[in-house]
């Protein structure tokens, strides 16, 4: 039964390499008096071979999926293609159950669904109720691993670019992206909110640290259930000083390409992306640029209607469905720019050549649509006061934001990128919920 060669400590004649491994049973296979156990420790698996008495004494009931074990034995090198991960196999001469998992009706395999179809709400809810257990399956582990690599890639890219990380507060008393999606709370008798974006705080750091970024949670009380909206998501945000709108677009292109390259440089992440999204290709540079007004034309020409069922006209919001249709059809990264001021947030700088529109950008990716929202910021004091007024915002709680325009303003801009949407794009996930450890969306705050 023993295939391969015993690993020795020296080149020849040394002692056999003995190892002790701990992990949970992933899979068991029995054949003619021998038993294979795949022991999982985090994302790695060790193939263990049990023979003779070891295979006889312990029946399959003890070795059910998720039972936690310690196995001791000799390490063998197996020929490539012999199924053992990393071509290594542990020939066990001893094992001990650390904690048994149940069999029967309560067995992991019976209770926990293993297909990851999130496209119907019933299946998705069933999977997410057991998220604490479904996370042990291969695909969710791989997605969480890639998320960690992508997050590190953003940190590394900004480290390379000399942009400083800061950590703005999550408890705030101002809104950034409109009042309708604020989560309010009682803060020692005062009204406060969970932050929708760290942008305004990042802007205050420019005179102090120069270019800054953060990766924090943002919160949105989204009152609809879509494939790409969460109540709590990971927001990568940056703010850059003394730049033009073109600089901002160039920065975004550079950053996204760096992060993709850094992610693919991790072999485990690259393998997972290849497995779940075989067609994935790093985005081609330069990214396609398209003005909002041209997108409206594009949608009109193809008879794609707006939310009221009419032809799109200048000034309409481009809703998720239309945006997805357009992105999938064009099938490449799109930088959609120059949105009308009245459909965007109060802080956006107007374009110099057309007062109706802002120096704003959304980056759209096939399969997801918007993954980035960014803009140049109003930096003139009076213009900002006029913007509060137009938006019906009380300027009082924004005094610290307004002060930035008083003490040495500058042309500056930045963006926010939804990390879960980025993951959904890279790994071809049906929904951003799959890119969250424990997703939060309308109706779910558990487990
Ligand atoms: O377009 P948004 O709302 O822009 C802002 O919040 C800016 N203040 C960011 C900035 O300039 N610093 O959000 C930015 C990105 C979106 O493009 C999207 O990827 C993600 O955040 N996002 C969400 N992701 C998941 N669930 C939600 N409910 C999201 N809302 C926004
Ligand atoms: Mg947006």
UniProtKB/TrEMBL annotation:
EC annotation from Swiss-Prot or TrEMBL: 6.1.1.22
Catalytic activities: tRNA(Asn) + L-asparagine + ATP = L-asparaginyl-tRNA(Asn) + AMP + diphosphate + H(+)
Record's GO cellular component terms: cytoplasm
Tell me the domain of life.
Eukaryota
The entry assigns this protein to a family as follows:
Belongs to the class-II aminoacyl-tRNA synthetase family.
**In its UniProt entry, what is this protein called?**
asparagine--tRNA ligase
Q: Name one GO biological process term.
A: asparaginyl-tRNA aminoacylation
Q: State one molecular function term (GO).
A: ATP binding
Per UniProt, residues of the Aminoacyl-transfer RNA synthetases class-II family profile domain are 146-439
Species name for this entry? Rhypophila decipiens
Q: Where in the cell is it found?
A: Cytoplasm
Keyword annotations for this protein, in alphabetical order, are: Aminoacyl-tRNA synthetase, ATP-binding, Coiled coil, Cytoplasm, Ligase, Nucleotide-binding, Protein biosynthesis
């Amino acid at each position: 039964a023993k295939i391969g060669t015993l690993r020795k400590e020296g080149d020849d004649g040394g002692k056999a390499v003995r190892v002790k491994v701990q992990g949970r049973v992933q899979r068991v296979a029995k054949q003619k008096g021998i038993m294979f156990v795949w022991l999982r420790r985090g994302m790695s698996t060790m193939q263990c071979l049990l023979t003779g008495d070891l295979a006889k004494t312990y029946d399959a009931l003890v070795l059910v999926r998720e039972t936690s074990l310690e196995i001791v034995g000799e390490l063998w090198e197996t020929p490539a293609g012999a199924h053992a991960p990393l071509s290594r196999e542990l020939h066990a001469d001893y094992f001990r159950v650390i904690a048994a998992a149940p069999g029967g009706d309560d067995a992991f395999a019976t209770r926990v669904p293993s297909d990851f179809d999130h496209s119907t709400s019933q299946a998705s809810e069933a999977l997410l109720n057991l998220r604490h257990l479904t996370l042990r399956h291969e695909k969710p582990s791989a997605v969480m691993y890639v998320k960690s690599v992508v997050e590190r890639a953003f940190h590394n890219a900004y480290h390379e670019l000399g942009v400083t990380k800061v950590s703005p507060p999550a408890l705030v008393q101002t809104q950034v992206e409109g009042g309708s999606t604020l989560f309010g709370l009682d803060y020692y008798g005062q009204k406060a909110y969970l932050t929708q974006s760290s942008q305004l705080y990042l802007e205050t750091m420019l005179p102090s640290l120069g270019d800054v970024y953060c990766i924090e949670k943002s919160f949105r009380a989204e009152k609809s259930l879509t494939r790409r909206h969460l109540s709590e998501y990971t927001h990568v945000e940056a703010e850059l000083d003394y730049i033009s709108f073109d600089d901002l677009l160039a920065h975004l292109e550079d950053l996204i390409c760096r992060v993709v390259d850094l992610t693919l440089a991790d072999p485990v992440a690259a393998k997972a992306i290849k497995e779940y999204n075989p067609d994935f290709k790093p985005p081609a540079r330069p990214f396609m640029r398209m003005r909002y007004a041209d997108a409206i034309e594009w949608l009109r020409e193809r008879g794609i209607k707006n939310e009221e069922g009419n032809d799109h006209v200048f000034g309409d919001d481009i809703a998720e469905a239309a945006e997805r249709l357009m992105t999938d059809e064009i099938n490449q990264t799109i930088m959609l720019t120059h949105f009308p001021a009245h459909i965007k947030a109060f802080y956006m700088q107007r374009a110099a050549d057309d007062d109706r529109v802002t120096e704003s950008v959304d980056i759209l990716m096939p399969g997801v649509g918007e993954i980035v929202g960014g803009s140049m910021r109003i930096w003139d004091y009076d213009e900002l006061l006029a913007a509060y007024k137009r938006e019906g915002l009380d300027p009082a709680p924004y005094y610290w934001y307004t002060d930035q325009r008083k003490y040495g303003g500058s042309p500056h801009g930045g963006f926010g990128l939804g990390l879960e949407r980025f993951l959904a794009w890279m790994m071809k996930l049906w929904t951003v919920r799959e890119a969250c450890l424990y997703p939060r969306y309308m109706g779910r705050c558990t487990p």
